[in-house]
Amino acid sequence: MSDSIRFKPWLIAAIALLGALGLIVFTPWFVGEVRGSGTSSDFEASYPLTFPSDFDWGVAVAAQHVEHQQPSDWTAFERRVIKEGKTGTGDQPGQAKPGHIRNLDSVSDEVRLKKVDFDNRFESDFEALAGLGLNSYRFSLSWARLFPRADMTEPDPAGITFYREVIAAAKKNGLKPHVSLFHFSTPEWFWEEQGGEQGWERKDALQHWNRYVTAVSELLGPEISHWCTLNEPMVYVLWGYLEGIFPPLQQRANPEATAPVVARLLEAHASAYQILHRDAAQRNQTIKVGLTQHTRAFEPWRNWHLFDRLAADFIQQAFIWDIFDAIESGTYTMTDSEYQRTIDGLEGTQDYVGINYYGRFYVQMDADALDKGPVTHTRDPRDAEELVSDLDWALYPIGFSQILEEAWTRYGKPIQILENGIADAANPDTLRQTFLTSHLREVWHAMNIRGVDIDGYFHWSHLDNFEWAEGFGPRFGLYAVDYDKDFARTPRGSADVYADIIKEGLSEALWEQTKGPF
What we know:
Elements: H1 9-31, E1 56-60, H2 63-66, H3 73-84, H4 109-114, H5 118-132, E2 136-140, H6 143-146, H7 157-172, E3 176-182, H8 205-219, E4 226-231, H9 233-242, H10 259-282, E5 288-300, H11 306-329, E6 331-333, E7 340-342, E8 353-364, E9 375-377, H12 397-411, E10 415-420, H13 430-448, E11 454-459, E12 479-482, E13 488-491, H14 493-504, H15 508-514
Parallel strand pairs: 1-2, 1-11, 2-3, 3-4, 4-5, 5-8, 8-10, 10-11
Antiparallel strand pairs: 6-7, 8-9, 12-13
């Protein structure tokens, strides 16, 4: 090779440097974003940070968490766990064990039956929430309570009466009911085998679902303006059909094997949307119907590792956005699979985008384990300053506003924050207070700096309660529940913090007092 075309050492170095700079600049376009360096948004604002007068301020609960046990699949699972002694857990906090419920045998039969005794205390609970200044209350209906037997063509009158009383008591206390139709539990009979299929995959599944939704719409609908058809469908599918943590306790071979279940849930959503809107139109009633997704900020375990960055983006798309994308387009396409299905009546069936946000997950993908898929970490033990909940979930407020902004950019529809909370059993619950102020600060930032249309915020949760496979251990409540003293409720300091923000906005003094490292 002649000197005229041979690269000089300095030129090689320059090309290498330019290549490295190009890789840094353009890699995110192809292999995902790097992990964020900050944990909260940096912006200037005049305090107090206030919210619109018609903003929905609420708390959220689920029927299986707070109501007396009904003949549901979860009740059957709870009883089987006690009978078989399957009350163990994983090695780490928040690490559930398939087929088990953590320490369920540590509470009495009465507690397992009554949960938090909401059935007998909802009126006083609502009075307390009204005293905090809340104007909304999100709860789910128990399908099993309304249709405890498969042969029923009409709902149980006692079940309808119960929910009418709950709704009336909520409204009496100035709380607008936000009602979820499916929050992980179904009637036990739904899992009786039909033609070799169970649950949502039965041929008559939608027939039963539509009967339930129609009854609820006709008998309770006139008093309800906000509906959530499905709560966190991807959590339900992940834990129920892949990991064996939730009923039906299945562990299918791969995510694609669960795609028919996701599609059936989307069919159920579309059908419910149409039933609810049809009936509301006949009553000249304006309603909003949507579903809500569990969201996390999925970020790479190692910034320098391209596989981690690819996997983080992949999981975020598959776990969060695939469902919403399907509702917008009418076609469900499972990320990184060949599964695609167009669902009749699905397109455009969300009046709002429901967001539940619980922090940051780290994603690790090693080249020698590609066949096993990525691993997620709930915290980074290498970061000594990272705040974590009692379940070892990393707090990451800035991820909240980023998720909210992305949802708004993608879909351009109002957002309802239907869950956002933390497990914190400490007294005083200073971490929950930090969580509340830091996350509501991000909501304000998303609305006022980034232009995101957000209608409301529902804290998870009103009370300590039964938290699925984690049992009664995690304490998510603004109100502590003493299971040894007749379910006594005691407001935590976070209840006062929430009340202050609702009534006065987030003041500079409250922010300085509670912001912690944020």
